[in-house]
What we know:
Blueprint: H1 4-12, E1 15-16, H2 18-38, H3 54-74, H4 79-96, H5 103-119, H6 121-131, H7 134-155, H8 164-184, H9 204-228, H10 234-256, H11 260-281, H12 288-304, H13 306-315, H14 321-342, H15 347-376, E2 398-399, H16 404-414, H17 416-424, H18 431-441, H19 446-453, H20 457-471, H21 476-484
Antiparallel strand pairs: 1-2
Amino acid sequence: MEYPILGENRKKRLTIRLPMLICFAMFAAWQMGVIYFSGTALSIGGRTPLPVSINNITLIIVAGYAATITYLLLLPRFVVLAERITASAALLSALVLYLPLPPAVLAGAFYFQCFCCVFMIGFEMSLIINLFAEETAVLHLGVAYAVSSFIIAILQNDLIPVPFSGFRIFMVTALVMMLIFFFRLPANIWPESVKKTDGLVCPKQLFAGVFILIFFGSAMTVFGTAVAEKVPHGVSVVFLSSVVYELTVYFLWKKFHVHFFRSISVLVVLAALAFATAIAALYVPALSLLACVFMGSGFSILAFTPLFSLLLAKRYPSKIIAPLGTFIAFLPVAMQTMMLEMFRDRIQMVYIIYLVIAVITVVLYLKMEPVLTYSFGGRPRVPLLPKVDVPDNTVSGQVPPPPPEESEAIERIASAKTDNLRTRAVDHLSGQEIRLAELIMQGYGNAEMAEILHITGNTVKGYRKTLYSKLQIHSRRELFELAESAPPIPVGKGG
């Protein structure tokens, strides 16, 4: 049985088609392009001919992060409106760059571009978290983002030299495409935030794990880009590799029902391997490009991190998810700056720190992955609905949410895991024990489960011990493995 607020929020999620998502994905290419041409991407020199100060842009980036976090905390329901206004203002400033104005004025227009591309970072995350249906989010982050990653690779000037005049054309084109998306997006639809009266219990362990993963996912990109920038053609190789990784994750999910969280676990391992290879490349330079190929997995991890936050919003729609996630994503940038200052002449030490953080990420993600997969649910294996007329409160390129009967079918598929537990138990599992197993696999701690089940913490421990004994297991990971294993074939029914 679904809590009313979760059901109402689910109905507000939008299913958007790929062409519109590509328009939205232009944000990432535009943002990375502005940062690249400004010269703030760590060791890369600026490409803009304007009298731009990197120190000024650094301050603008910090101000942009502070502004987006503040806006998300105070006015979360007006994100779509803010996207429309900010993208329109950015387009005007991009057009100003074509005018014969004094260099200082043109530099001011470019500074404004930098502020807008950072200010909109939190809005991008908030839209995906709060308004995208699951399939739309995976399509956006797996396919539309791959298109964006390819454009970023082109903008690096490693493959096809892109002069500033060409970049101005790209800025205008990208902002027009983004505005098409923002103005077709309904501005009057936004999910409700959870209140105490809704009766939901926050899965604190899951929240903590997800936010830590967001931090490490951001770190993989920041650190990986820092390594790649020291390798000829390295940055382009990183982003071209990320195109392959992102498309592969989507293809495996769409065609073979391999859950995207499981595919991401491979990317996490590749990211750790990338830093190990980068250390080896300090002594065997021929390995440098191979390290960059692996580094592309780090950018892909960052691309998919909104799925983590989307999961939280589905389970416990708190208004702090987007602003806190945006703040955490900013922390590795500051961390990178401090490390480069501390170990300016000891690059090996910096790389070793990168590797240690990557290994921690692998361990944490492998521990979290079963909970993420179970809580998010698999790809709905039910027939697609026929095309229907779009109601007035939706937009072109978007279809209505699934009807109740489809959601019920998905729930029946999800219940197969608990059915597996029943068949595997050496003794009958009570309803309370089954419910406890579901809560364990959803990432709840003992105290939270006690609150949900209206029992004491000691009683939860007793139920848990009995549950594990009946299933003949000793850990949560074994519980997941048992829930996902094929049910035993009854005697007399085999081949």
